[in-house]
Specification:
The protein has 823 residues and is α+β, with helices and mostly antiparallel strands. 29% of the residues lie in helices and 25% in strands. It catalyses: ATP-dependent breakage, passage and rejoining of double-stranded DNA.
Length: 823
């Protein structure tokens, strides 16, 4: 024992240093040898070994399938000393069309599904290579890549494949190593090849030029990518995040709508998604879902989400995107192994790595082919010499005692090399026929341009690049398929507005400034001359002053008597019952002291091709581009500059369809003039004269727009008399004139209250009175009459009641032809 200790060297090692060193060795082994792909061929070691083993088994894409167990056995036994399950799982993934953008394994049997079903056991399934994987192994036997010893040094395996396909970007990769992870999305092969071709020709191009060729990721399961910012960021820095949504369409049945999911985000389990949506519906987290079923078949995916009656599909969809896997965030990390080191690449760097790899492969292949061609040419030169002196050579060989003497004699007498001499000795007598002699000469002459071309590739970079480009073009032609993932330019994160139903509502405002919204279908339709329904309780000194029909997502612009403009989303107005008072508007917008809302208009956008036209009490009209009002502060903005004794009466949006403007006065006068006669001016400008009054006490009560002569103008007086008149009945005159008669006024009609432009007779008229009553009347029940007439009774009024306001809304008819009132 003593002698043993004497011959032993003991070294003290700190345990933390030992753990650190061992952990680093382990982590590098995982990083380089298992979890991360190579930047050149885009494969992890296990995938590379599977394809190489299949190639050695001669499993081309035209060969007979072979049992997966046999392939896995070869991989484990020769190259990959790990569990068979891990190897088989890797093989299965390469055969799944929902995992790979370009499949590398052609599987026969059950290889799993997008529902998360596992593949059948390896003893049941069969596999072979695809055409694409053959292109990845092409030229591997031409000394194009380095081979390294396998785990027990009994075999050789490729360190990388000489791929013609930019597999890392085409199929992407994901993996978690020690302290790092990769997440590279798949892409469309023709876009990547176009980028490679452009990069070869323009090595100093920037990412902006490449982004014109590479639209973005293209997932095998399709879906929609929202927003390009994450794509640009990932391609520029190597890291980024993109939003991927399911692709759906809406199917309308007789009674309701169904949401049909056609494509889901990448790597989402369809069965779990259906279960998740079903749970959300049953737990009332998402209201409006009555049933969900999977109707997917071999034709494609089809998940049907049935909605309840009167459920808005937009609202349910937004909830689904917010609460389920129908929207996913895909984190992009362009991490791969290069020169045995992990590195985060930009898109340009990945393109450069592949181009460099292809140059290396083509150069090494060319050297190999040139060496073989020269060797063959050398032999053929010997044949030519032998055939020129065939009789003498035959005699020389017959006189030689053995082969070595004959070889030496040939080398000395005819200046042949040892290889040439041996080749001549090995010639068959058949080569002496005239046909064979011609073949030798033809082969010799055919090799000369081949050698010249190969030498040119090695000598000129332009020629080398040309070869690489030709091969890429060939790959592009074979493997290009249509884009599966749609890319939308912008992504708007789902906020509370997206969860508000798109509904038609009636917004009412009282004289004292109380506002509310009520569902349009609350009001029932009545016949002309009806008494109406109470639209809202008011204070004794208050009455309903105005109302309008809008969508909950529309924007309301409030324009005050002082020419100030405020705006508010319709859904921010409290929803109440029909008889409720509502909420004071001063609690919703910042009105100033003594400021009163005079008109309200709605819009769904602020397009700069539209304008806002204002009408004042004193007959001033002004036009301003609508886009100037899209960003309004809480304190509002100046919409029009008014004279001291003037105030704003109404405003309207005009676009390219509007031909004329129409102004009506309280005393029954009106004027019609061209909209183009007024140009857009700034927000704070005063405007120009629209109409001059015949009577000093007259004032403007309405301003509206006309699109065509066939439009109708609906006039209503304060005692409930109304009529429809063709717009063409009013002649077009120059702006600023006194106009013509709009409505014949009498003691039975009272003064003119409102004039509305009607371009669709399939609508209803809604009238509000000063006592707070509202009545809904079909427009087609109000007869047409000339401009110099009075009209018919629209609503019966009490002795002190008067028409305060009138507006037009859409029909909302039930099967029995009336509206169903709901308390």
């Amino acid at each position: 024992m003593g002698n043993l200790l004497d011959n032993t060297t003991i070294k003290e090692v700190r345990i933390d240093d030992s753990i650190k060193e061992s952990y680093l060795d382990y982590s590098m082994s995982v990083i380089v040898g298992r979890a991360l792909p190579n930047a050149r061929d885009g494969l992890k070691p296990v995938h590379r070994r599977i394809l190489y083993a299949m190639d050695n088994l001669n499993l081309s894409h035209t060969a007979k399938y072979k049992k997966s167990a046999r392939i896995v056995g070869d991989v484990i036994g020769k190259y990959h000393p790990h569990g068979d399950t891990a190897v088989y799982d890797a093989l299965v993934r390469m055969a799944q069309d929902f995992s790979m953008r370009l499949m590398l394994v052609d599987g026969q049997g059950n290889f799993g599904s997008v529902d998360g079903d596992r593949a059948a056991a390896m003893r049941y399934t069969e596999a072979r290579m695809t055409h694409a994987s053959e292109e990845m192994l092409r030229d591997i036997k031409k000394e194009t890549i380095d081979f390294v010893p396998n785990y027990d040094e009994s075999e050789k395996e490729p360190s990388v494949l000489p791929t013609r396909i930019p597999n890392l970007l085409v199929n992407g990769s994901s993996g978690i190593a020690v302290g790092m992870a990769t997440s590279i999305p798949p892409h469309r092969i023709d876009e990547i090849i176009d980028a490679l071709l452009y990069r070869i020709d323009n090595p100093r191009c920037d990412i902006g030029e490449i982004l014109e060729l590479v639209e973005g990721p293209d997932f095998p399961t399709g879906g929609i990518i929202f927003g390009k910012q994450g794509i640009v960021e990932a391609y520029t820095t190597g890291r980024g995040r993109i939003k991927v949504r399911a692709k759906v369409h809406i199917e309308q049945t007789k009674t309701k709508e169904n949401i049909v999911v056609d494509e889901i985000p990448y790597q989402v389990n369809k069965a779990r998604l259906i279960e998740q949506i079903d749970t959300l519906g049953k737990n009332k987290i998402i209201d409006g879902i009555s049933d969900i079923r999977d109707e997917s078949d071999k034709e494609g995916m089809r998940i049907v989400i049935e909605l309840k009656r009167e459920t808005m599909h937009e609202v349910v969809l937004n909830h689904l995107y917010k609460s389920s896997a129908m929207e996913q965030t895909f984190g992009i990390i362009l991490l791969a192994i290069d020169n045995n080191e992990p590195k985060i690449f930009t898109l340009l760097e990945l393109l450069d790595v592949f181009i460099s790899h292809r140059k290396t492969i083509v150069i090494r292949r060319t050297i190999f082919e040139l060496s073989e061609a020269r060797a063959r040419l050398h032999i053929l030169e010997g044949y030519r010499i032998a055939l020129e002196h065939i009789d003498e050579i035959i005699a020389l060989i017959r006189q030689s005692s053995d082969g070595e003497v004959a070889k030496a004699s040939l080398m000395s007498n005819y200046n042949l090399s040892e290889l040439q001499s041996q080749a001549i000795l090995n010639m068959r007598l058949q080569r002496l026929t005239g046909l064979e002699i011609d073949k030798v000469e033809n082969e010799y002459q055919g090799l000369l341009p081949i050698i010249e071309n190969l030498e040119s590739i090695l000598q000129h970079e332009e020629k080398l690049n040309s070869v690489i480009k030709e091969e890429l073009e060939e790959v592009k032609k074979i493997f290009t398929t249509p884009r599966r993932t749609t890319i939308e330019e912008n992504y708007d994160a789902i906020d509370m507005e997206d969860l508000i139903p798109n509904e038609q509502v009636v917004v009412t405002m009282s004289h004292r400034g109380y506002v509310k919204r009520v569902l349009l279908k609350t009001y029932e339709k009545q016949n002309r001359g009806g008494k109406g329904k109470i639209s809202g309780n008011t204070h004794d000194d208050d009455f309903i002053q105005s109302f309008f029909v809008a969508n909950t997502h529309d924007t309301i612009m409030f324009i005050t008597n002082k020419g100030q403009l405020y705006w508010l989303k319709v859904y921010r107005i409290p929803e109440t019952g029909r008889t409720a008072i509502g909420k004071a508007v001063v609690n919703l917008i910042n009105l100033q002291e003594n400021e009163k809302i005079m008109t309200t208009i709605t819009t769904s956008d602020f397009d700069n091709n539209k304008s806002l036209v204002f009408f004042t009490k004193k007959g001033i009209v002004k036009r301003t581009n609508l886009s100037e009002y899209k960003n309004i502060r809480n304190v509002g903005v100046r919409a029009i500059n008014l004279d001291d004794d003037d105030e704003l009466i109404s405003a309207s949006i005009i676009d390219s369809q509007v031909r004329e403007l129409f102004i009506a006065t309280r005393e029954g006068q009106c004027i019609r003039f061209g909209a183009d006669s007024i140009r857009d001016i700034g927000r704070a400008a005063r405007g120009v004269i629209g109409i001059k009054f015949k009577m000093s006490n007259d004032s403007v009560i309405a301003g509206t727009t006309i699109s065509k002569d066939e439009d109708k103008l609906l006039s209503i007086s304060e005692l409930g008399i109304g009529k429809q008149t063709i717009a063409g009945s009013y002649s077009i005159i120059k702006r600023g004139g006194k106009g013509v008669i709009a409505m014949k006024l009498t003691n039975k009609t009272g003064k003119l209250v409102s004039v509305l432009s009607v371009n669709d007779s399939n609508m209803d008229l809604m009238v509000l009175t000063t006592s707070g009553k509202m009545i809904r009347v079909p427009l087609d029940s109000i007869r047409e009459a000339g401009r110099n007439t009075s009209g018919v009774k629209i609503v019966s009024l009490g002795d002190k009641d008067r028409v305060a306001f009138a507006g037009i809304c859409s029909k909302e008819e039930k099967e029995d032809g009336i509206f169903e009132e709901k308390e």
